[in-house]
Amino acid sequence: MDNSIFLAKFWGWYLIIFFLILSLNPKRIKQIFDDLKDQKFLILSALIAVIVGLLNIVFHNIWEPNYKLIITLIGWSSLFIGLALFVLPKRTVSWLEFVNIKLVQVIYMLLFFIGVYLLNTAYGIVFF
Q: Residue 75, exposed/middle/buried by CB under 10 A (0-12, 13-18, 19+)?
């Protein structure tokens, strides 16, 4: 299986599942931000974000103007957020909280639509 299709399936399902979890249990978001105040959780989260970002970039750093660009940007975003959590943890957490509070509906809809788009591309379910 092509790396791009595999990652489109992975990220598509991940984004849809994450969208459903946050939509059905909105208290989970507050819990995540509360947990980020714990240094152990913060370091573990940053480490996972850096690893996921690096793996995504190493296996898929394709800058074509299609679904492959979305996959690449997810990897780079993960890497940068993970590094920011390591280097500037308090500032990054407060920035993430601010963005989440101001753009919560936009973020949810982006999660959903990007997930649907990636799954559609990977499986060819709907044509649009």
A: buried
Rounded to whole angstroms, the Cα distance separating 31 from 51 reads 23
Tokens standing for residue 117: 């788009």
Burial code of 26-52, b = ≥16 C-beta within 10 A, e = fewer? Answer: eeebeeeeeebeeeeebeebbeebbeb
Instruction: State the Cα–Cα distance between residues 78 and 54, nearest whole angstrom.
Output: 8
pTM confidence score: 0.88
How many domains does the chain contain in total?
A: 1
Q: Is 128 among the domain residues?
A: no
| Chain segment 23-71, per-residue pLDDT in tens | 888 888 888 888 888 899 999 999 999 999 999 999 999 999 999 999 9
User: Domain span at residue 67?
Assistant: 3-123
The amino acid at residue 100 is N
CA 71/CA 16 separation, integer angstroms = 15
